[in-house]
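Final report, closing paragraph on structural work. Over the funding period we assembled a curated collection of sequence-structure pairs, and we close with a single example.
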Amino acid sequence: MGVLRFGLFGFTVQIQPGFWLFALLLVGLWKQNMAESLMFLGIVLVSILTHELGHALAARRAGLTPVIVIHAFGGITRWIPIGPLTRGRGIAIAMAGPAAGMLLAAAAAVALKLLSHATAHPGTPTLRVALTTLGQVNGFWSVLNLLPIMPFDGGQILAQLLGPKRRVLTARLSLLLGCVAAGVLFRLGLQVAGLVFGLLTIIQFAVAMRAMTKTAAVDEARLDLLLRQARQALEQGDTELAEKTAEAIIELSTVTTQRHEAAEIFAWAALGQGQYRKVQHVFEILTAAPLDPLLQAAILEADGDAERAIACLRQARIGGDNRPQLAASLVRLLLAADRYGEAALTTIQILDDVTAEEARQVMSTCREGGRPIPAAELGMALFSHTRDADDLAWALVNFSASGNRDAVTQSIAVAVEQQLTAQQLLASPAFATLSEDIELRQLVLNMHISP
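Its predicted structure, as stored:
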């Protein structure tokens, strides 16, 4: 059985095979009747989905792009990174899941009360049992989930409140309260819930302490060498080697900066292979520090959110990031979105860093997209760099196509100033595209070059 994927309210939802196995275990412990077992399985799935949708909605409100994953022990909401979250936003996202569960529990209680008062249609016993169970499961789990125990939402809130410098204190408090909660659940006869709480609390404590105290199996200098090799492999197009090397660094290193750079290389390699879903494996590391806007935009684009990718690159340029590759990526996205004016303007701003052929391709795309003015303005800017008569000819033809005769006159004046002849301009492929613009040809033929 593979991973089940579908969309829900604009979110990608993945249900892993382990969920079905654990849910069937719960069903077997709860009821023997097949209909009631299936009903309980549906309640479990709806409850987890509702809880994670709460997180996802809050994350989307914070400007993130969340993905919901349902696994053997419940669910988790991940998102495409845009840098570290503020403490307030982190707490809000953590609280949104239990809040959604409580709302569902309240809705089930209201529906049950309405049914009990509707003497004509009081509802079937199965429906009443379903609503009762739905309310109890969500109410109980939402309250339990707010306990300050890792990795539950209450534990995430505790970690946010105490901050990253008190991770040891967070882990110890979580272990203590988790063991107490597990004992209480066992005393109440809720063995499965107690077992889950106890196991997850102990596992999470062990993972947290190991992350804080482990010694790297390879020294930092050797990991730096591996990092350079991974970067070199990526630059040479060997994405598979880059991915495997970066993955090894992430596993071995305890240095935050090394792990983050390795995660970025891993993400670029995965995107280069068209494997966007692999990027999700390093989301947690990527979100621990500000993310390169170029990579962030690439992840957003791979996720199908071109608008936010454009906004990300545009904001980076406004913030002073003048890398040519960032601007080139922005131009490509703008052309794909039919935003020819901004694409041409951005290309003009980076003419020193792109080839003339690349700029001419942008000019051609603008013209073919029905935007001759941006194409003409780019042609004029390009001519100032190349002094190539073809570039000025294209500017003339595009200005003429836009109906801007003043711009045509000014462009001819530039041609005269640069000592270009009518024959040079008319011999350009640009004029071969004209069929009926006799006036433009005549203007070019009549231009006079002063001695």
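Strands lie at 4-8, 11-15, 65-71, 74-80. Residues 4-146 form one domain. We thank the funder for supporting this effort.
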